[in-house]
Amino acid sequence: MSTAAVDIRPLGLTELVDKEVQSSMLVSAMVRGRLGGTLLFHGPDGSGKSSLALWLASALNCAKNGGQGAACGQCDSCRKVAALGHPDVFWSFPLPGSYYSAGVPDEGKLAQLYERKRARPARAIEFAEKAEHHLASVKMIRAEAGRSCYEGRRKVFVLTHADRLRQEAANALLKLLEEPRENVAIVLCTSRPSGLLPTILSRCQRLRLTRPSPATVAQLLTGRYAMGESAARRAAAVAEGNLSVALGLGEDGVLEAQREWVDKTLAALLERSDNLILALLDDRKGPFYNRGDFERYAGLLAAAMRDVLLVCVTGRPAGEGRIDAFAGQVADSRKLIKLVERTVNLGDSLNRNVNLRLLGWSLLNEAKEVLGEGAGK
Amino acid sequence: MKISVVKNNFLHAVSALSPIVPTKSTIPALYNILLEASSDDGGSLKLIATDLDISLSQKIKATVEQEGAITITAKKLGEILRELPDSPVGIEQVDEKVKITCAKSNFILPSLPRSDYPVFPTKSFEGAFKVSNQLLRKLVNATSFATGRDEERQILKGLLWEIKPDEMSMVSTNGHRLAKMSCLTELKVDQAINVVVPPKALEIVEKLCTQDGEVEVVIDENHLGIREGDTVIFSRLIDGNYPNYEQVIPLHNKQIAIIDSEKMSEALRRMLILANTVTHRVSLKFSENSVNLSVRTEDLGEGEETIDADYQGDSLEIYFNGSYLIDMLKYNESDQVKICMQTSESGILAVPAVENEKQRYLNVIMPLKVTE
Predict the structure, then answer these.
(1) Whole-angstrom Cα distance, residue B277 to residue A194?
(2) Taking CA B29 as the corner, what is the angle to CA B26 and CA B31, rounded to the nearest 5 degrees?
(3) Cβ-contact B347, B170 below 8 angstroms
(4) CB burial string B343-356: b at 16+ within 10 A, e below
(5) Structural domains for chain B
(6) What was the pLDDT predicted at A101?
(7) On chain B, which terminus has fewer CB atoms closer than 10 Å, C or N?
């Protein structure tokens, strides 16, 4: 008996998941000539903002649709956009200061990042240091915007994490937006529109995106990434539909390792032991030395705290020892709600130049305060 | 694709293309040269390189067994060709790689598909107008030094090329100085054309088209194309409106000095030794039949020199960036330069003292404002 081969074909950079509404809105705007020169795609991390932006770049330059419809995905132009190799499509993302030399982005280091993105399109690029859009990057965009198209119809600039524009970079970008050019489209992608200058926001056509459902992501993980079904379901649920995070969790042992750290955290909190907490923070193998690990750990901790809250509210045990024990010792539910909120929104703090161990220390102390005095005694 | 080419022709073409190939790029295909083999015209190989601003193609003769197109890493191809003996070079596509053979040497290089390579501009040269190589070189030389370097003002980084049926001009400015050269020549254009071209493109034309003759020029809304024989260069144009430079050319100048270009240039070079390394500030004091050049920089010292000048106007002291004056004098073909001034705070107009009917050259230099 023959078995059907699994189609292990990772999601491409311009492939869309659950974006039928948004893509048809964009096509309709293109056809009616109503597509603005500056667009803002906003929505939570993992909602497919960059993919939709690059898809739009494909559509605007597609050799088959004449710039009046959806991208065919097959022509040379569409293939080049999907491989980040189109001469008229520019992808800009926040970079740490070390990626700039003599005031301009180091093309060699950038080329390596592009290579990584091409190899793993659905995975976010993570840096150990704080990453921002510097003035030099925006100057390059302005310079490029002043040149004519090479082979396409419209130059498209995609800025991911646009909320991470430094003040001077944002002002420089504003100048570009103030003088729109017919053959230039700028797509700003952000999960935090409030982080952009109001003068930039007022010049954007906005489009809101949502994450695909965990079930859809789980399906992708099993189909396109050949992940085991239960692992895919678990990773998609924990990642709440964020494919990039789910893929990170789905890697061999990552989910288990981070779960172990959350377990250790709960144990230390239940003991109310500062020494145990400090030992966790000092452990170099732990999540407090790498932003990506911390993000995944925080996601799992947030999920654990939500479970605790559920147990507290419904009074029904979760069937997981540490969760139930934690719930049993919660002294102040309001503090627990605040803690859940904080863990869920930890991404904002991580975007800043924060010391991960200090952030961890403050977070775990807040968690400790949720428990009554008697805990651990 | 399967072809054979003369080694030296191939090496010559690859060497001509190499300066265009970027050393670092986020688009991997740009590290490569595109080779297109065609059986037309008795067999030819077209080599293409681009850095997206400038695209260059060269055509050489080839014995074509099988037509096709491939891309090869320019750097390694050049290095290999330089070391090969003087024998025919065979190029063959083998799956996704390229096999290069010469005498008893065999190399296999990685390749990228042609579809990954940026599309070479396909503007036809039908209806192109012809320009003398020598004239083009002269215009570029005399003006490109004054282009701006400021990333904020992209338009000033280019050369404004004004083409009329009976005249051709090039203009450049960085906001502090302006250079313009116009030459009377007959061009087959129906109407006036104004384009802003990156100087790098014209400098490459200058290097490649060294022989006296003519190049064909074609312009569309995005590109400038130049062809000389089997060499074709396309450059992207700089978008935007070039500033109305004519309004900064001072017309009613009462004070006029005529100075020996060489003597002035030598004196300026001596003054610049002690000038501020950022502003290059030099003072020029015009008085009857002389100009006194002086420089004073704290920590470095001071110097002064007087040179003869044909000047009958009022005494006038103007501060300049001395290196701007030297650049202006370098391309002033006449032995003497005519400097036309109004006040110490307005820009000066510098033209050759002896006018040439067929060629007009002018420089406008703004003075430095001194706050002491």
Answers:
(1) 45
(2) 80
(3) no
(4) ebeebbbbbbbeee
(5) 2-116 (3.10.150.10), 129-245 (3.10.150.10), 249-365 (3.10.150.10)
(6) 83
(7) C
Architecture per CATH, domain A20-208, reads as 3-Layer(aba) Sandwich (3.40)
Instruction: Give the pLDDT of residue B149.
Output: 84
Instruction: Mark yes or no for CB contact B151/A114 under 8 Å.
Output: no
- Whether the pLDDT of residue B17 is over 90: the answer is yes
pLDDT recorded at residue A130: 82
Tokens representing B155 are: 């338009």
Give the best residue of A74, A76, A101, A174 to mutate against chain B (max B CB count within 10 A): A76
Query: In the predicted model, what is the mean pLDDT of residues A231-247?
Result: 84
Q: Which two tokens stand for residue A186?
A: 């700028």
Condensed to tens digits (0 to 9), the pLDDT of residues B163-179 reads 999 999 999 999 999 99
What are the backbone dihedrals phi and psi of residue A60, each rounded to the nearest 5 degrees, phi first?
Answer: -70, -25
Phi first, then psi, for residue B347 (nearest 5°) are: -65, 155
Chain A residues whose CB is inside 8 A of the B27 CB are 84-85, 87
- With a cut of 70, say whether residue B9 has pLDDT above it: yes
Q: Cα separation of B318 and B326, whole Å?
A: 16
What count of other Cβ atoms lies within 10 Å of the Cβ of residue A8? Answer: 9
CA distances from A217 to A117, A210, A237, A338, B88 (A): 19, 13, 9, 29, 57
**A233-253 average pLDDT score:** 81
pLDDT at A7: 54
- For A197, A271, A273, A325, A327, the CA distances from A375, given in Å and listed in that order, are 46, 7, 10, 10, 11
Q: Do A143 and B154 touch (CB under 8 A)?
A: yes
State whether residue A209 is helix, strand or coil.
coil
pLDDT in tens, B129-153: 999 988 998 999 999 999 998 777 8
Residue found under tokens 């103007």? B318
pTM of this prediction? 0.79
- Rg of chain B taking only CA atoms, in angstroms: 26
C-alpha closest to that of A207 among A13, A16, A46, A21: A21
Residue A251 per-residue DSSP state: S
Of residues A241 and B178, the one with the higher pLDDT is B178
pLDDT, position B332: 85
Which amino acid appears at position B245 of this protein? Y
**What DSSP element (H or E) covers B138?**
helix B133-143
Q: Which residues pair with B69 in a beta bridge?
A: B36
CB atoms within 10 A of CB B126: 7
**B118, B152, B239 ranked by CB distance to A147: nearest:** B239
The pLDDT of residue A121 is 86
Q: What is the mean pLDDT of residues B234-261?
A: 91
Confidence of residue B154 (pLDDT cuts 50, 70, 90): confident
ipTM score of complex: 0.74
| Residue A280 φ/ψ, nearest 5 degrees | -60, -45
Task: Give the amino acid at B161.
Answer: W
DSSP symbols for A83-98? TT--TTEEEE--B-GG
**Choosing among B26, B71, B200, which should be mutated to test the A contact, i.e. which has the most A CBs within 10 A?**
B26
Confidence of residue B77 (pLDDT cuts 50, 70, 90): very high
Instruction: Judge contact between B220 and B122, C-beta under 8 A.
Output: no
Based on its alpha-carbon atoms, the radius of gyration of chain A, rounded to whole angstroms, reads 23
